[in-house]
Design goal:
Helix content: 25-40%
Distance between the termini: 27 Å
Largest sheet: 3 strands, antiparallel
Radius of gyration: 11 Å
Number of helices: 2
Number of strands: 3
Strand content: 35-45%
């Protein structure tokens, strides 16, 4: 089972939040610049976790979420 962890970074001089996909012992994938809002990113990470989204579908689900 994977875990979804919110990450924080800087892009163009402003804070950006992303999500990392964590396997048992290593990071499997990540998107660093999902939103500038910590709250929005946490909601998305919780959605991914609660729905058991597989790592292979991570990028597609995030893309669909952002396109809505």
């Amino acid at each position: 089972m994977v875990r979804y962890v919110v990450t924080k970074g800087k892009a163009d001089g402003r804070e950006q939040y992303g999500i990392a996909v964590m396997g048992e012992q290593e990071q499997m994938d990540s998107i660093d610049d999902i939103a500038s809002s910590l709250e929005e990113t946490m909601v998305l990470a919780a959605f991914l976790q609660e729905n058991g989204v597989a790592a292979v579908h991570f990028r597609d689900v995030v893309e669909d979420y952002l396109a809505r």
